[in-house]
Structure formats: structure tokens, C-alpha cells
Design a protein that fits this description.
The chain is an alpha/beta fold. It contains ten helices and 17 strands.
Length: 326
């Protein structure tokens, strides 16, 4: 866990940029030379090297960011002051990704010198260790997460993130527009950008250029934020349910009871999938609202289809028992 499986990396230079751009600043500054700015980070996990500095290198996660909190910093200074440098030299014999000192603690000059020789970037942050770890992990998770783009519409209906997919012209955007009119929110139209967090959660958003806009045939491009206000939009949302709008085919068998559970795979994460056939007279927005409410019931442990099946079986068994007694 934590390694970017899509092979994506970011440089220390980019991390510094992200630290400035983020809503919660990382307050980072670099103390090694400029060459180390091009060192790459490929994991969003961190390591506290306290045990390593004592000489235990059996499980040294050198590819992770090395965070030096007050404890690690204090022990490092003690090693330098007492001229016990063996473990520090050994530390830099590994291909360490990056070292970050919290609490605005200045690393010993020898440590910076060895880092420069090993081309290991050393950064300092004024943040407390726990806040630094939380913020930097969140930023790197987002930056290094596997990503994909899907043609569809992402809306939030009764708090449930629903990805609507289907062939071009089937009515995805028109359906989403009706949902917004009914008080729900648009996340993305046409192109939904999705990234995975910890290989379990999918977060969807719109492309920046067309965010909060919709294309409706016959009307053109609509600015949903201007039309409906901030109540009609949302920047990001977890993808929890996929609804496929299919053109009605009288020869095709559709699930009538809901006992057949289908899923849709995105970045290796399986999401519940419902297929809704579309034809004139069907109120698709209200069906999607019902799907959202039913999904919430399922998350609370109640399955309408299974409950109906159990009641039906019980009814059949009771009638068979009465017939047997008669």
C-alpha cells in the first residue's frame, strides 16, 4: 500500500509547488542544493526513522519520505554531538528519497553535507509533526493516485455519488439537468475525471475547463452554477453507484426483481451497477432518485429484493405445509 501502481512520480520541486498551492500550506523550505530538487517521490507513505538511527536497518523503508519529528531530531543531534556517526553514514548508504524536519528544526550541518553528497533532498517545515504528516500524505495521495477519465455524468443524489453512463445521445445530461432542478447537485458532465484513493475509494471531479458546465443538445453550453447557484454544484464526490442508461430493446431481458447484482470496474474498484432501459414515458430521474435511496438502504443492511424473496419462500413453504396437513 502507498506505492503508486500507475508508475507516477513527482519531483521535490513539484512537492514544494504543491505545498504553496495547497489550501493548508506545508510551509516547506529546502536546505540542500538545487540538484536534489529533481529527486522523485513515488509513494505517499511516510517513515519515522527513529529506530533506523539506532542501528536497526533490517526493515528500513528508505523509499518512503523520512519525517524527523522532535524525537528523531533530538536523537540525531545527540549522535552528532557524541561523534557517533556510524549509523548516520549508513543511513545515507541507502537510496533515501527525502528527509523532512518538522517544528522548524535545523538539521546538523554534517547531516546536510552528507545529504548533498548522496543527492538526498532535505526539507524543513515549521509545522508540528502530526499536522505535517496529515497534510503531506493527503497531497501526495491525490497527486500520485491512479487516474482515469470516463465519458458520463457524475451527480450527487440524496448524498450518493452516482455516475451515469450510456451511449451518446441517450439522455444522460438531460437526466442530470432534471435531477439538478429537483434539488440535487452536478459534479461533472461529459468528462468525469476519477482517481483512486488507497485502492478502495473512487473520487470523481470535472475537468477544470468545463467544470460546472453542461452541454444540452438544442440549448448549447449551460453554466449550472450561474443558473442554479452553488446549491446545484459540487467540486468532487465519491463514486458510489453506476447507472447505465440503455436504449430500450424489447428482445433483451432486464432484471425485474433486483436479485442479480452487477458491478462496474473502475481502476480495479468494483462499484454497484444498475442498468435502466430508456424509452418514451419512463421517468428516468425519479428512477435514479429511487436507486439512490435503495442504495442507502442497502448500506444500512436492508435489501428489498432479498427480503421479498424470503417472504415469498416463506409463503410457499406455509402453503405447502397446510396442503400436507390437509
Amino acid at each position: 500500500m502507498g506505492i503508486s501502481e500507475n508508475g507516477k512520480c513527482i519531483t521535490i520541486e513539484r512537492l514544494l509547488e504543491l505545498g504553496y498551492e495547497a489550501e493548508d500550506l506545508l510551509h516547506l523550505r529546502i536546505v540542500t542544493n538545487d540538484e536534489t530538487l529533481q529527486k522523485e517521490i513515488s509513494t505517499y507513505d511516510i517513515n519515522r526513522p527513529g529506530l533506523t538511527l539506532t542501528g536497526d536497518y533490517d526493515y528500513f523503508d528508505y523509499e518512503k519520505l523520512q519525517i524527523f519529528g522532535r524525537g528523531e531530531y533530538s536523537y540525531l543531534k545527540k549522535l552528532v554531538d557524541e561523534d557517533k556517526l556510524e549509523n548516520i553514514y549508513k543511513f545515507f548508504s541507502y537510496m533515501v528519497t527525502c528527509c523532512i524536519f518538522s517544528h522548524d528544526n535545523e538539521p546538523p550541518a554534517l547531516f546536510v553535507e552528507l545529504a548533498d553528497k548522496a543527492k538526498v533532498p532535505v526539507l524543513i517545515s515549521s509545522l508540528p509533526t502530526n499536522i505535517l504528516v496529515t497534510r503531506i500524505t493527503r497531497i501526495l495521495e491525490d497527486e500520485l493516485a491512479p487516474r482515469t477519465s470516463i465519458h458520463g455524468v457524475l451527480v450527487e443524489v440524496f448524498g450518493v455519488g452516482i455516475l451515469i453512463i450510456g451511449k451518446s445521445g441517450v439522455g444522460k445530461s438531460e437526466c442530470a439537468l432534471e435531477l439538478i432542478e429537483r434539488g440535487h447537485r452536478l459534479v461533472a458532465d461529459d468528462v468525469v475525471e476519477i482517481h483512486s484513493i488507497a485502492d478502495t475509494l473512487l473520487i470523481g471531479s470535472g475537468a477544470k475547463l468545463i467544470q460546472h458546465h453542461m452541454e444540452i443538445r438544442g440549448l448549447g453550453i449551460l453554466n449550472i452554477e450561474h443558473l442554479f447557484g452553488v446549491r446545484g454544484i459540487r467540486d468532487t464526490k465519491q463514486v458510489q453507484l453506476v447507472i447505465s442508461l440503455d436504449e430500450w430493446d424489447s428482445k433483451k431481458e432486464y432484471d425485474r426483481l433486483g436479485l442479480e447484482k452487477s458491478t462496474y470496474s473502475i481502476l480495479g474498484v468494483e462499484i454497484p451497477l444498475f442498468t435502466i432501459p430508456v424509452k418514451p414515458g419512463r421517468n428516468i430521474p425519479i428512477l435514479i432518485e429511487t436507486a439512490a435511496m435503495n442504495y442507502r438502504l442497502l448500506k444500512m443492511g436492508y435489501d428489498s429484493a432479498k427480503d421479498f424473496e424470503l417472504q415469498l419462500k416463506k409463503r410457499i413453504e406455509d402453503e405447502h405445509h397446510r396442503d400436507t396437513e390437509a
